């Protein structure tokens, strides 16, 4: 374990925190230097969020001390933490879409005189902050019209404008493409050059190693180790995080691939995607790759009937389908796990049991009445099959970790016994243990003969699990690659619209 540097901006010592029935943190230590990117990694439930909420003034610690620039502090509110130079950039973007970029950046501290906002000063401040961060965004643009990556930069600019000493980034790249993430990393470098202490939380382990100076590993609310990022490997981090070896985060099973199940030909939607043709065979995992905005999700939604398509055909086991709404797709044997599980995938206020049965109410009901016994048996079976932990089917989904919520989404759709399963970012925002479980589930489904289409912004994930990879660029198919030909270079070349070498 590394020694504590004497010039640390932040020092947290012996941080302990309990909630009713749960000990979230036990004697956790953390120190971060000025101009350092210090990563914190661990499974969901390891204590990362609780530790950061203590730093941000959301929760007081039961025990332990927090020191900033040599001064002991104890925050009773997030406002008190901000006044001491602690900034938080959360995974969920927290901006007002109907206000301008400049208004969002200065929200809560608008320059004004006699109750009138000084627009010139407002825009001048925003322009200066955005320029310092290297973000090419017009201060007078409405935030609601910006891309997700641009909104992320505005979120960072809002924190940066308060002149923080410490900034916490919580999964900042979860909704960004590789190219957009690189823009974020350039902003981090500028902040590092200004001697800001940066705490970086991410499940993307290679990304962590690329940008961080040191890595602290948490497991079950305890600090396991703190090491320099240089020389550390993803495999070693995984072992420290889960307490066991995971030789392959993306296990690939050898499966006999059968006949075509889903055949999409010439699918088009004006202004969105054009002439998309693809095939998914029984037992095959087909990767759908491309940069954010390439049209991957839009194609998936059209196949499932969530969005219309203007031309093209969809065939299942050789029979042409007319799919104008999801109900038709489900009846035909197509299931779709959406990108945003909290908004589109589960009803957080309902139980695991209720969520799983939603997709098969006809099967578990008679004369309009739900057969509760049959519903419980089905839900318990699916929860156990998909490693939902704990398999407590009467608990509200909102009380489970992100990884287990994703498993409930999968359980809901697998209850329909689909022939084709479309997975849109199935492991986004889940920890490495849950990610391994989800990939095991995907492998088991392929063994059963389900045809799987998987969308992922993590290129190593696509390459590791796919039997074939289709690549989209600006709504058009630019490559179809067999597993042996799919490399990071070949996929990115097609994803960026470059001409591939013969």
UniProtKB/TrEMBL annotation:
One of its GO terms (molecular function) is ATP binding. The keyword Methyltransferase does not apply. It comes from the Bacteria. Residues 10-245, 244-499 form the ABC transporter domain. InterPro entries: AAA+_ATPase (IPR003593), ABC_carbohydrate_import_ATPase (IPR050107), ABC_transporter-like_ATP-bd (IPR003439), ABC_transporter-like_CS (IPR017871), P-loop_NTPase (IPR027417). The keyword Calcium does not apply. Keywords: ATP-binding, Cell membrane, Membrane, Nucleotide-binding, Repeat, Sugar transport, Translocase, Transport. This is Sugar ABC transporter ATP-binding protein. The lineage of its organism: Bacteria, Bacillati, Actinomycetota, Actinomycetes, Micrococcales.
